[in-house]
Amino acid sequence: MKKSFGPRTLLYPHPDLIVGTYDRDGRPNAMAAAWGGICSSNPPSVAVSLQKSRHSYAAIMERQAFTISIPSERYVREADYFGIVSGRDVDKFEATGLTPVRSELVDAPYIEEFPVVLECRLLQTVEIGVHTQFIGEILDVKIDESVLDEDGVPDVAKIGPIAYDAMRKEYYGFGKVLEKAFSAGRAFRK
């Protein structure tokens, strides 16, 4: 039997996405956003939902660009910090010691120490309740060579991404490989 929790913002797991922007004064900023994910394969696009009160909201609207950096497990504290303070009040990069890198493709910074980066040009916004969904066309994905396998393909175990549990307010790492995608289900074909 399943217990009802009513309408809630639960998705297991939520990705921990760090959205990079430049504010009006050109200062690099980053914020944690768990409401996001891939939303189109052609053009390759990702969506993140932010409230209008967030410092990053105005920056994305003004610059029409953002990045998404995927933190690894070793940076869980820094990633959490990006979600608990505002760039209006503090320099998050100075506080954490992480390095903002100016994207060559979009007017936004990404985080050097995080192994995966998506550079996005704003395509569209969608108003949804108290959030605005920013849909960004992914112009490039940069992946640190240290997290590639011997075939040059990203290795999730080496990336060590973190996931967020909105109910418990906890971060999790990823476990072992369970099955090969687009193969495991073939056992049910007739």
Automatic annotation (TrEMBL):
Q: Which InterPro entries match?
A: Flavin_Rdtase-like_dom, Flavoredoxin, Split_barrel_FMN-bd
Q: SUPFAM superfamilies annotated for this entry? A: FMN-binding split barrel (SSF50475)
Sorted alphabetically, which SMART domains does this protein's record hold?
Flavin_Reduct
Cofactors demanded by this protein: FMN
| Keyword annotations | Flavoprotein
UniProt keyword Flavoprotein present:
yes
| Ranges for domain Flavin reductase like | 9-164
Against PANTHER family, the record matches this protein to: FLAVOREDOXIN, FLAVOREDOXIN-RELATED-RELATED
For this chain, the family text in UniProt reads: Belongs to the flavoredoxin family.
Name the record gives this protein: Flavin reductase family protein
